[in-house]
Amino acid sequence: ARESGATILIAGRYNIAPAVADSAATINVTAKIVKVNEGRFLNEVVDGQQVTRDINVNDGLGNLQTMQGQIAFVILHRLFKGSLSYSQNQLVTAANKIPGRAFEAYTKALLTPALDSRENYLKNAMRLYTEATPDGVYSEAALELGHLLYQKRNASESINAFEQVISAHRACVDKAKTESTVAQCSDETYAEASFYIGLLQWQQQNFETALATLRPLADDLKLTSVYNALGAIAVQAAKSERKNPAKSAALMAEGLALFKKAAESAPEDANIRFNYAATLFLLENHSDAAKELRAAIAAAPRDGDAYFMLAKTLETLKDPLAATIDNEARKYLTANNRYALLEKEWQKSKTFADLRLRVAQPARKDFVSVVLSRRPGASNAAPQMSETEGLLATARKQIKEAQDDAAMATLRRVLASEPMSAESYLLLGKIHLRRADIEQAISSFKTSVFWDNRLIDAHISLGKIYIERGDCQQAKSYATQSLELDKENKDAQGLQRLIERCGK
User: Fold this and answer.
1) Are residues 353 and 414 in the same domain?
2) Are 337 and 418 in the same domain?
């Protein structure tokens, strides 16, 4: 609510009593007003006492629009008292914007679980709306119908329903421009319908149409799921483009940029990380692909495809961990003999013919929240330190002050929620090393560089351990990686000098 610039929030609950015999379905609504900036419920003075009063409304479900107007009046009346310039009748009239019979059919559809019956109710609602408003479209009903038909895998009719939502939105915007008034159009239904049209066009292999539909939506909403879907379409279009190499390269670059945006926005999303890594792999950027695949596996530790691709990436990079990761891939790709099929294709052509980019449908509430956040008055909240970052900062301080037991307890808390936290393993390695528990230190340092190969301190520590053990080859490997990460690092340079004397 704060991010959208809202000053009040309405919180509450509702209960629907279904129709029984001759009695119509009823709905009971209970709500409270929250003052967002103060973080508390709105209080009123009654008989000299500060009290919080609920808003209670009960009526037939068919009168829901009237109830919405009544609730709006109570909210405004309590906020502005005697300065309110609207009557309850005016707000009730404004709320009843959908013809009664059409609205009743729509509410029945929402309460009906059987798909065929719900489809009939929605189509009936749209027909009744058009009869009462010849040039209009019942956008909410059309949107629900589009989703229902999408669920039933009726692509052409689903697209048609979603396109009616788009047409209604454009007509609303054009009317507002003509009349020089503020447009009060349903931006969230427009965004949602556009997204699913793009998704359906992609599923029908209409890549150009899908891209044309989703590109403006991505720029407008900056929604992570849209970036991810558009990236997948661009990459698939690039792979399908056989005649024009320049066009294919441009599409692949577009897909990579979109996945990068999505990954920056949702770094914990395993599917987005996988898509970004897969695109880097296709572009033969194996170092960055390995980093992203590690992140994807950290978020989804049983992802066989990610393990397989990471194994082949490390193999290309001549990383000794490739065989270990390949064993993990074998373990998680037993279903339908998938490992054998992928391995056969890889040995034959060094490609992933069955590369499946991952696109998850966003929650419908996401469209509402994003549209609200970009309206005038929306503000960005200052970034806050996460609980994990706070715990890691505490652990660093405890280690610096030689409070090793306390630091280990803190790090266990981190690993309980984020078992692939690379820095946690790095810090544990330092504690074990200080306690001369060398085997545990090696294990922790190796785990830390597996999950984040950029941790130069872990590479240097491992190099020093192997020098002390006389294993010059292992030490040299870690020294080389340290210098590749930062050739100006004094500790890495010192390790290299030790390597030069190792075994002499």
Assistant:
1) no
2) no
> Total domain count for the chain?
3
**For every one of its 504 residues, what pLDDT tens digit does the chain have, with 9 covering 90 and above?**
555 567 788 888 888 887 777 777 888 999 988 887 777 888 877 777 878 888 999 998 888 899 999 999 988 888 877 666 678 898 888 888 889 899 989 988 988 889 999 999 999 999 999 999 888 899 999 999 999 999 999 999 999 999 999 888 888 888 888 887 766 777 778 888 988 998 899 889 888 888 888 887 776 667 788 889 899 999 999 988 888 888 899 999 999 999 999 998 888 888 999 999 999 999 999 999 999 999 999 888 999 999 999 999 999 999 999 999 999 999 999 998 899 999 999 998 888 877 888 887 777 766 655 544 444 444 444 344 467 788 889 999 999 998 988 998 888 887 766 656 788 889 999 999 999 989 888 988 887 876 677 889 999 999 999 988 888 888 888 888 888 888 888 998 998 889 888 866
Based on the fold, state whether residues 308 and 343 are members of the same structural domain: yes
350 and 242 in a common domain: yes
Helices 286-299/304-316 angle, 10° precision: 150
Q: Let me know whether 324 and 401 are in one domain.
A: no
For residue 333, give the CATH number of its domain.
1.25.40.10
Domain span at 73 = 8-97
**Secondary-structure percent of the chain, ordered helix, strand, coil, rounded to 5:** 65, 5, 25
Which residues, other chains included, contact 307 with Cβ-Cβ below 8 Å and sequence gap of 6+?
297, 325, 326, 328, 329, 332, 333
